[in-house]
Amino acid sequence: MFLLIPSMAFGAPDDVQERFKAMKKAYESNDMTTYGEALRSYLRDVDNADADVAFMYAMFLSENGEEASAETLRWANVAIANRHQWRDDVYTMRLQPLYKRRIEATLVLWKDAVTQYEIERTDDNWKRASRYQQLSSHYFRVSNKCVLSGDCGPYFAVEVDETPLCETIDPNRVATEASVGRLDISTVACLEGLGATQPTMRRWVRDILLDNAEGNESIPVWTRLVEWHSEAFGRHDLDILMGYVRQLSARGETSTQVKEEWVLEALKLPDVPADLQAELRGFLR
């Protein structure tokens, strides 16, 4: 957990200074309920764009279980949006923990959305699952680029565990788990990030993710794979598109228009074998 006394507290109005004293007292006495409420009320009543307090609140929420994921994501984004308030080491030491918490919160929300979609296959649940799927991929790429560019600095040994999200990927373990459809959601995100930033690994990542998708009947998993491959390689992949179209056709709950869109994408690819062309055209009837 973090406790910071933002620089604006010094010389601030008396009521604001009292708020910070209350935060400090609650934190030091381990009264986390009061501490969290002090942070929340400050953001609600005083300044909802204070990067320091938003940072502290996001860190606090991230320690309060999966049910706090939506609020963790909200306040992590507020702190990141106002990161211009930080300088030098303060900037680097706060940004990477925020990126990590943001990814973790989004993965929880995506997993929950996929579960809800599998229970009740409505358009709203589909859109929610797709939204969090896209956000988790985007946030992972942003974080990875920040670390690779040096803008986030090294992984500092601060008051929370700052081990990289994807410090080690064991190819043998991942391949074994993928073959039986057991890749967890965070490993999938790590693989996508590796494939996007390390060209030499793209083919291996593509094969692993395709194996995992083929062992998983979830349409959102297939949608994610199609979109990831297009972004990582700059083109579509026939095997992935065929698998996706077959899943859409077998499930029958996605609109004909969506299925036809991907069939036409597959037919545009060069050197599609005649038997697969015939199968694809059959989906258009």
Description:
The protein has 285 residues and is mostly helical. It has 3 domains: 7-149, Serine Threonine Protein Phosphatase 5, Tetratricopeptide repeat (Alpha Horseshoe), CATH 1.25.40; 166-234; 236-285. Helices cover 70% and strands 0% of the residues. It contains 13 helices and no strands. The protein has helices at residues 14-28, 32-45, 51-62, 69-81, 88-119, 123-149, 171-179, 185-197, 202-214, 219-233, 238-251, 256-268, 274-283. It is elongated, with a radius of gyration of 22 Å. Residues 154-165 have low confidence and may be disordered.
Structural class: mainly alpha
Shape: elongated
Task: Catalogue the unreliable spans.
Answer: 154-165
CATH class of the largest domain: Mainly Alpha
The number of distinct helices, counting runs of at least 4 residues, comes to 13
Beta-strand content estimate: under 5%
Overall radius of gyration = 22 Å
How much helicity do the residues have? over 70%
What is the element string, with H for helices and E for strands? Answer: HHHHHHHHHHHHH
Number of separate structural domains? 3
- At CATH level 3, the topology of the largest domain is Serine Threonine Protein Phosphatase 5, Tetratricopeptide repeat
Termini separation comes to: 58 Å
| Major β-sheet profile | none
Number of strands: 0
The whole-number mean of residue pLDDT values reads 76
CATH architectural grouping of the largest domain: Alpha Horseshoe
What's this model, at a glance?
By secondary structure, the protein is mainly alpha-helical. Helices cover 70% and strands 0% of the residues.
